[in-house]
Write a structure and sequence with these properties.
- The protein is 39% helix and 14% strand.
- The protein is an alpha/beta fold.
- The chain folds into two domains: 259 residues, Rossmann fold (3-Layer(aba) Sandwich); 90 residues, formyl-coa transferase, domain 3, CATH 3.30.1540.10.
- Strands 5-2-1-6-7-8 form a six-stranded parallel beta sheet, with helices on both faces. A three-stranded antiparallel beta sheet has the order 9-10-11, covered by helices on one side. A two-stranded antiparallel ribbon has the order 3-4.
Length: 411
């Protein structure tokens, strides 16, 4: 069913990246998310898929009537063509496309593009201003460069899994593409930095961005290596507890819901304990710092959790809000769709889709007052724009396109 949400205007303006052409030769999340963000803010993105198998992202997530739903969002604002880069003629067409592009995003294993005659040296000889964003599990060099790299491996090696879960339980992996998502957002930032540098360079030189899946999530996990280097301390799992402050946990309400409480600021922690009827705890010496409170997390959980357990979620949130304390309900997808703040601010938006009609999806990720992004169209069918790009823009004879399609070089 189509859940209610704010009706978004598909295209609210040209966006800050209008005039930038991006070739997306990546698959399985980090690269496609990077190019989705670039497309959301005005870039002309041409999505290259394998002419027979299509893009692997089409097989990820749920489908409706055989049509993948995730694809509709992740490939929005992208024109799609089927093109075999491993075929000499396909590689030749790719080189022609690169001449007119500003950005290439790819995530093949290191050495693959070079093997096809499409390495950075070749592409920069054709287009010196091209920004080439190379996303891999472990980077383009080093002992692990040739290994298969996926987000799960980055979540494991970054320290994230080691720190996630209960103290007496196993390391825990996220139920979604966390490392890929963080990397995709980071890659979009790196891309715009490289474009900014190119446009300030008198020679308008592009560059290669070497982006690994593991480094962005390492940054998100925090300063564990620095702490180990200086103190010899290796942090361990603490469940929902924080080693930096308390109370910080999820707590169950009397009507069976869950809420999350955070007290990163000292005054917020004081308000929480005053709200739950224990102002005397605020006077304890250890309460004066986040680290001190974290050392007494079990006591604080008992006091805060007991108060919350006697009240409904609505009363808990009302009480915390009126006290100026920090609380949030633990939401599932239905809760998000129905939340008044999510609806009022347009975090989710409904756009028109050629297969499903009104389709709910995440809105553009941030708001820009002068050059807002927009959703011009949703993810398209495999090879939907092959003829328009190859015949209409590269000037290829339509009969030649038909011949290449017959040979499965294009789709």
């Amino acid at each position: 069913m189509n859940a209610p949400a704010q009706q978004g205007t598909p295209d609210r303006g040209p966006g800050p990246l209008k005039g930038i052409r991006v070739i997306d030769a990546s698959t399985i999340l980090a690269g496609p998310l990077c190019t989705q963000l670039l497309g959301d803010f005005g870039a002309d993105v041409i999505k290259i898929e394998h002419p027979v198998a299509g893009d692997g992202m089409r097989g990820h997530g749920e489908s409706k009537n055989g049509i993948p739903l995730w694809w509709k969002e992740l490939s929005r604002n992208k024109r799609t063509i089927g093109l075999s880069l491993s075929d000499p003629e396909g590689a030749g067409l790719f080189r022609r496309m690169v001449r007119e592009a500003d950005v290439l995003v790819e995530n093949f294993r290191p050495g693959t593009l070079e093997r096809w005659g499409l390495g950075p040296d070749v592409l920069h000889a054709l287009n010196p201003g091209l920004v080439i964003v190379r996303i891999t599990g472990f980077g383009q060099s080093g002992p692990y460069a040739s290994r298969a790299g996926f987000g799960t491996l980055a979540e494991a090696m970054s320290g994230f899994a080691h720190l996630t879960g209960e103290p007496d339980g196993p390391p825990t992996l996220p139920a979604f593409g966390l490392a890929d998502t963080i990397c995709g957002i980071a890659a979009s930032s790196a891309t715009t930095m490289a474009l900014y540098h190119r446009d300030r360079d008198p020679e308008r030189r592009g560059q290669v961005v070497d982006m690994s899946l593991i480094e962005p999530i390492m940054a998100a996990v925090g300063p564990g290596p620095t702490v180990y280097d200086q103190l010899g301390v290796v942090k361990q799992r603490h469940g929902n507890h924080s080693t930096n402050n308390a109370p910080r946990n999820t707590y169950r309400t009397s009507d069976g819901h869950w809420v999350a409480v955070s007290t990163s600021a000292q005054r917020i922690a004081e308000r929480v304990l005053e709200l739950v009827g224990h102002p005397e705890v605020v006077e304890e010496d250890w309460f004066a710092t986040g680290h001190g409170r974290a050392a007494h997390a079990d006591l604080l959980d008992e006091l805060v959790g007991g108060w919350i357990a006697d009240r409904t979620r609505e009363k808990v949130i009302t009480g915390f809000t009126e006290a100026g304390a920090a609380v949030a309900p633990v939401y599932d997808a239905r809760d998000l769709v129905e939340d008044p703040h999510v609806r009022a601010t347009g975090m989710l938006t409904t756009v028109e889709d050629e297969d499903f009609g009104p389709l709910l999806m995440h809105n553009v990720m941030w708001r820009m007052s002068g050059t807002p992004g927009g959703i011009r169209f949703t993810g398209r069918a495999q090879g939907a724009d092959t003829d328009a790009v190859l015949a209409g823009e590269l000037g290829l004879d339509p009969h030649k396109v038909a011949e290449l399609r017959e040979r499965k070089v294009v789709s």
